[in-house]
Write a structure and sequence with these properties.
It is a single chain. It is elongated and about 120 Å long. The C terminus is likely disordered. By secondary structure, the protein is mainly alpha-helical. 40% of the residues lie in helices and 0% in strands. The protein is built from 6 helices and no strands. The chain starts with 29 loop residues before the first helix and ends in a 37-residue tail after the last helix. The protein has a domain of 142 residues: Bromodomain-like (Histone Acetyltransferase, Chain A), CATH 1.20.920.
């Protein structure tokens, strides 16, 4: 009788025995390791969510809010600093004003230009504010309250503009807004009248 061949039968092969005192071999969990590696590769390859971009303030919005800031500034007595410059004197009431001032402008006209988006940057607004101040200084006497207010109004504009240029985000940090959704900053007095104006602005 021929002995049975065992060359092709591997299912009944007994496990390799370890020597006394040595722990048995552990089977490798290749499937879980491979799947975990694949998962980590997928995570590393997946695109990350783009960071949120900070909202940039529109130039016309910055101009509008700077105007609101100087327009709503009050003096120590509670009156608006710009009160004398809201509307230019009427020709019938002050004909002499138009003999001195060849290019009249007031805050109402500036506000109208803001509504029609005629100002593209702060420099254009500054040109009209400077014209308004120079007109007031040319017509009103140096010791008059209007002349003093014109000097202080110009200083207020320059310091407010500098603040905006250094930190534009400061315009968007206040919680209060008007009926049109435009932000109005609540700030204290930025400047105080000292009786001195820059030589370039003296009439």
């Amino acid at each position: 009788m021929r002995p049975k061949s065992t060359s092709g039968d591997t299912s009944s092969t007994p496990p390799v025995k370890r020597g006394p005192g040595r722990p048995p071999l552990k089977r490798r969990r290749t499937s879980s390791v491979a799947s975990g590696s694949k998962k980590s590769d997928d995570e590393s390859d997946s695109p990350q969510e783009p960071l949120r971009k900070r909202k940039k303030l529109d130039p016309t919005e910055v101009v509008q809010q700077l105007y609101d800031l100087i327009r709503n500034h009050k003096k120590d007595d509670g009156t608006l600093l710009c009160d004398a410059f809201i509307r230019a004197p009427k020709r019938r009431q002050e004909p002499g004003y138009y003999e001195v001032v060849s290019n009249p402008i007031d805050l109402l006209k500036i506000q109208q230009k803001l509504k029609t988006d005629e100002y593209e940057d702060l420099d254009q607004l500054q040109s009209d504010i400077e014209l308004l101040v120079n007109n007031a200084k040319a017509f009103y006497k140096r010791n008059s309250q209007e002349h003093k207010d014109a000097c202080e109004f110009w200083e207020l504009f320059l310091s407010s503009k500098q603040k905006v240029l250094e930190d534009p985000k400061s315009l968007a940090t206040d919680d209060s807004s008007d009926s049109k959704g435009k932000i109005i900053l609540k700030v204290g007095k930025l400047v105080s009248y000292t009786g001195w104006c820059p030589p370039s602005l003296l009439a």
